[in-house]
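P.,

For your records, the input lines for the assembly:
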Amino acid sequence: MRKVEVPLGQRSYQVTIGQDARFELADTVASIGSVSRVGIVTQDIVASTEWFASIDPGVRFEIFTVGEGEPAKSLATVEDLCRKFASYGLGRHDAVVAVGGGVVTDLAGFSASIYLRGVAYVNIATTLLAQVDAAVGGKTGANLPEGKNLVGTFWQPKGVICDLATLETLSAREWACGRGEIAKYAFLVPRGTETFSAGTSIEDQVVRCVEIKADVVSGDERESERRMVLNYGHTLAHALEALDLARHFETRGAGNLGQGILAHGEAVAVGLIFAAILARRMGRIDDGRVDWHRRVVSEFGLSTELPSFARGKGEELVEYMRRDKKANHDLTFVLDGPRGVEPVRGVDIKDVFESIEELESLP
Ligand code: GLY
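Structure tokens returned:
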């Protein structure tokens, strides 16, 4: 097993990465001390697998399931979970264990952070996206009808377990989701620092991404500045996802929204290229650096092109970008530059429009 420390003083914890890492759960729960019962939060689709049958926290436990997809990530689900914890008799010294992807770790972490004013939790991340991003770093939350992740807390887990065995069953879209985030990390280290390539073993890729994230989070746990780099490529990505969702909603209503929509990682991949083009337009990086972005994203098997549904939709994309909660009342982007990737405030709207046009014109 490989271990990566997230150094946060008294809130420090380890991320355990490896094939069959789930068998580390009992030790992780025991290391919290005091835990005599556990509420396991998961989804039916995970709970029905053979893999899940060997999840053992080493103490008495009960399983609580939540629905699938972003619609399940609601305050109603958080209330439901907290009520179930209470009915089960989960106490202040007990713990919650999340077993699933980002929806599950966000919901379980958020519920753990407010139930009895905060109980311990452990994440077992079962998707590539959750292993390299969502399960690590203590961001928890739920959606509001007004937008994604508009409520939440910073509540660090007591441990994170990334069982690589779960990756064998992921769909192509779930791989794309993870690969977009992995490609992002390639740009977050100082120039000349070795990261990984698409050819690196998946274990090494996960370990390296978690190391990079741990370093960023330990320097800025509550995202006052540096942690914003973890949103590299996400400003356009969120706008693309919102536009995509809106057009599907118009044509199909709320049903089947998962079908055929742009995967988060695919959106991030295009967002990374857009950010590079914008940075070049602002004189922050040169052509070679933009080419490098395109090369890395392509190597991870992701498209660098603006999806057809977003072509000619510059106005709408900019409107979504303005509304992005991270924009902070002006157009803030995370951009590459001489000092590496960093938040840049007050970006000129003209540069943004021209960069979208340039992205559209790319072969
Ligand atoms: N997913 C971005 C962060 O954890 O800050």
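Two observations worth noting. Residues 133, 137, 139, 227, 230 surround glycine (CB under 6 Å). The longest strand covers residues 147-154.

Regards
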